[in-house]
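Quiz preparation item.
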């Protein structure tokens, strides 16, 4: 049934040609966001600490169009900051620049500067595709109906013809959009010169393993040389705080997704480098061990994206510095609280702030460095840790952006204490439990 001839790289020999010709993504890659373009060195230092332990992970600096717009920055500045860090620390391994969550309307300004494009098609999910194309997809893929035996999944996946058509109907337009955006980038940049990710995470419902398989078949039909895919996983991936959901179910589905990807690479000739990308991946401490075990079991790669967790370490560092640093951190909190609705609305589906838990600015103004740091730092065991305070500040980077040079100068004045916090957060709380623990 699975001839795989439909795929554009129909066997592993062809896949070798892909590996030789295209820019490929390393097996383990770590997305880091550097909102104010001041922490690239401290972020790279965390990857170097992992390398010292014998595990290779490459950094990918990601910034979305939304972040650039809010901050008023340009993609060239992310490239410049990354290059300066790589040079300063003597990093000889690859690194990449991710045009995160782009669409056709927003991609162009990234094209000269990025070599990794996250094509976001979540908005097209569920919009009806042309019924003729849905039917053609189903006709082309009889193998997707019935029992699908996938190595390393205990029981076969089961689908009915109606279900395949329903799923194709839900995702086909999104996949076609991804194809359009991919070809637009390929034409401007040359198809061999960038890494393609497709993201479907910013949507209402998670994609099940059978849905993932159908999506991958459709992406292969669309001839997208997909190297990472970001599904929406089960459970809540709130910004800057731990995973909320059924960890056992997450673990089962994550393992099944890895099995589906390994299967789809062979059956549809997708690039051998194809792997999962976990978005909003920072601070999800309770799923790092299940992810680590699954990667080991499947000998699979991973791309984990983080972003705002680093900006919060800037605030932690400022607070820890005391004096003008602490005063500025308190001022940013007070301003954020004053604009709570405006800041939270765009992120409503990915934060969970309890308003009653947000301390009054007058109270915060009386805090010591230690009190501010304890409320903000993501240490779930600390009794003073305040997830609502943390999430408000997570979405509050616009306030810091408005402070302009005052904020940037403070980052420079207190660079040492901030850098220590940035590196330690990424290494101790993220990379170590994700990759190095036993
Ligand atoms: Zn995302």
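Solution:
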């Amino acid at each position: 049934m699975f001839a795989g001839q439909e795929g554009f790289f129909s066997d592993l020999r062809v896949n070798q040609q892909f590996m030789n010709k295209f820019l490929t993504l390393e097996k383990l890659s770590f997305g880091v966001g550097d909102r104010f373009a001041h922490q690239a060195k401290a972020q790279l230092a965390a990857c170097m600490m992992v390398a010292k332990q014998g595990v290779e992970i490459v950094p990918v600096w990601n910034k979305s169009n939304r972040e650039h717009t809010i901050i008023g920055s340009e993609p060239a500045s992310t490239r410049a900051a990354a290059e300066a860090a790589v040079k300063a620390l003597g990093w000889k391994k690859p690194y990449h620049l991710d045009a995160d969550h782009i669409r056709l309307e927003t991609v162009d300004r990234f094209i000269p500067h990025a070599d990794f494009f996250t094509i976001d098609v979540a908005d097209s999910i569920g919009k009806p595709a042309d019924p003729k194309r849905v039917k053609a997809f189903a006709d082309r893929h009889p193998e997707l109906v019935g029992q699908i035996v996938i190595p390393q999944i205990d029981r076969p996946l089961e689908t009915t013809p109606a279900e395949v058509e329903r799923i194709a109907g839900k995702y086909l337009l999104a996949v076609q959009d991804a194809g359009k955006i991919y070809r637009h980038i390929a034409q401007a940049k040359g198809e061999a010169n960038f890494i393609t990710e497709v993201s479907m995470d910013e949507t209402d419902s998670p994609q099940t393993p059978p849905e993932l398989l159908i999506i991958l078949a459709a992406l292969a039909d669309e001839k997208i040389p997909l190297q990472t895919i970001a599904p929406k996983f089960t459970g809540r991936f709130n910004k800057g705080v731990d995973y909320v959901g059924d960890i056992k179910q997450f673990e089962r589905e994550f393992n099944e997704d890895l099995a589906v990807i390994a299967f789809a690479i062979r059956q549809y000739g997708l690039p051998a480098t194809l792997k999962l990308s976990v978005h909003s991946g920072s601070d999800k401490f309770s799923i790092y061990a299940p992810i680590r075990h699954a990667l080991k079991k499947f000998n699979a790669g991973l791309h984990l994206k983080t972003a705002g967790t680093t900006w919060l370490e800037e605030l932690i560092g400022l607070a820890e510095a005391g004096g003008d640093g602490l005063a500025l951190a308190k001022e940013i909190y007070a301003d954020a609280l004053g604009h709570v609705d405006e800041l939270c609305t765009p992120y409503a589906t990915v934060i969970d702030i309890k308003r009653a838990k947000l301390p009054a600015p007058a109270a915060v103004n009386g805090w010591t460095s230690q009190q501010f740091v304890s409320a903000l730092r993501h240490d779930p065991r600390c009794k003073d840790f305040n997830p609502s305070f943390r999430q408000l500040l997570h979405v509050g980077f616009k306030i810091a952006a408005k402070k302009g040079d005052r904020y940037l100068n403070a980052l420079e004045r207190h660079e040492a204490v901030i850098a220590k916090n940035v590196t330690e957060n990424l290494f101790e709380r993220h990379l170590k439990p994700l990759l190095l623990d036993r």
